[in-house]
Amino acid sequence: MQTILIVGTGFAGMWSALSAMRLIEQNGGSEASGIRVIVISPEPTLVIRPRLYESDADKMCVSLEELFRVTGIQFVPGMVDTIDTAQKRATIIDMMGIHSALDYDRLVLAAGSHLKRPNIPDIHEHAFSIDQRDEAANLDKHLNHLAFEPPHPARNTIVIVGGGFTGIEIAAEMPSRLRSILRSEDVRVVIIEQADAIGPELGPGPRPVILEALAGLGVEYKLGAAVVSVDKTGVVTSRGERIDSLTVIWTGGVEASALTQQVPGQRDRSGRLHVSSDLRVPSVPDIYVTGDAALAIADDQGHHALMSCQHAMRLGRFAGHNAASDLLALAPKPYAQPAYGTCLDLGPWGAVITQGWDRQVQLTGSAAKTIKENINQVVIYPPKADRAEAFAAADPDSAGPTLA
């Protein structure tokens, strides 16, 4: 039996598996076609990563076990250690540390991304992050423990390193969250951003709204400054300023999974592999790359998919479909995602919604917040564990979400 091996159960990995299995089902099923779909990940869960800036981060995941069962997708617990592209074989380490090998006919690399941590003294020991569920849960635990610390400016101050999308969302969330924990109005939240503007990658469109919201929430920001050292009681910036804080949260950019380095091909500065329109690696035609690991052209204007769940979900649908199409000798579907929107959570102030790559503001405040909550709590969640419903949702020609 031929094998489509999918690495990862994030948004791209889950939708790749469902989309591949959908096409196999349409062509007689696994038994008739002789094709099986296997997914590898430490757990059969989808982490709702866009919500890790919220409280109760440890609950931001959904089991995929039943969904995989009803759709005929096989799950193998473990982590892919090596990819041998010549032998078409992946080496897997299970939860007990035991190595095994699994051969594939087509591999879909949906291993995602991780936070980029620069070589700054003590950053790993003393800076928190919300990059992964366990890290966000650790921050949750730390914040709640602050209530037992003696009152002190460092206790009451949170420093957010990075004023991009993630940094803004966590910063907007923190003032009310910290006040609730400490039962005190005397809190301080500071963003440190090395660019000369907040949200540099978001452009000028939503910036006035973001600045209005941060001002209303009492969030400070220091621009044109980088953090040069971190210790257990604060940070020092490139301007020589020290800010005392027991809570430093690092949000400074992401890079693709290290597994992309094992696949021959061209990469961008974030480690993403360049892929063709069918999401295949040109130099290794047996491998498809999707989600945050892929540098894919999204439209005929030359825009590239971003490292976001709105792109990962659609990328996954196309990658899985095309991997199955290849084995079934069917024509692939070229990936495209011309519609693009952004919905940025701004805490109790509300949210801001933009449309288009130039991010023209469409909606702000509480009305935008309602849409953001629907995206976070409904739109990005997996389909129900119903075979017909799941396969319908996995159709690459379905519209999918256009905001994230």
Set down the secondary structure blueprint.
Layout: E1 2-7, H1 11-26, H2 29-33, E2 35-41, E3 45-47, E4 61-63, H3 65-71, E5 74-77, E6 79-84, E7 89-93, E8 99-103, E9 106-109, E10 113-115, H4 123-126, E11 127-128, H5 133-145, E12 157-161, H6 165-182, E13 188-193, H7 207-217, E14 219-223, E15 227-231, E16 234-237, E17 242-244, E18 247-250, E19 254-256, E20 273-274, E21 280-281, E22 284-289, E23 294-295, H8 309-327, E24 341-345, E25 351-355, E26 360-364, H9 365-379, H10 387-393
Parallel strand pairs: 1-2, 1-9, 2-5, 9-22, 11-18, 12-13, 12-18, 13-14, 20-23
Antiparallel strand pairs: 3-4, 6-7, 7-8, 10-19, 15-16, 16-17, 21-22, 24-25, 25-26
Helix pairs in contact: 1-8, 6-7
Strands of the widest sheet, in order across it, are 5-2-1-9-22-21
Number of strands: 26
Distance between the termini: 38 Å
Radius of gyration: 22 Å
Query: Helicity range of the residues?
Result: 25-40%
* CATH-assigned fold name of the largest domain: FAD/NAD(P)-binding domain
The appropriate CATH architecture of the largest domain is 3-Layer(bba) Sandwich
Total individual domains: 2
The CATH class of the largest domain, by name, is Alpha Beta
Shape: globular
Average pLDDT figure: 95
The largest sheet, given as strand count, sense and whether it forms a barrel, is: 6 strands, mixed
The CATH superfamily of the largest domain appears as FAD/NAD(P)-binding domain
- The fraction of residues assigned to DSSP E strands is 25-35%
The low-confidence parts are: none
Return the structural class.
alpha/beta
Tally of contiguous helical segments: 10
Pfam family, one: Pyr_redox_2
Cofactor: FAD
GO molecular function, one term: NAD(P)H dehydrogenase (quinone) activity
Domain FAD/NAD(P)-binding: 4-314
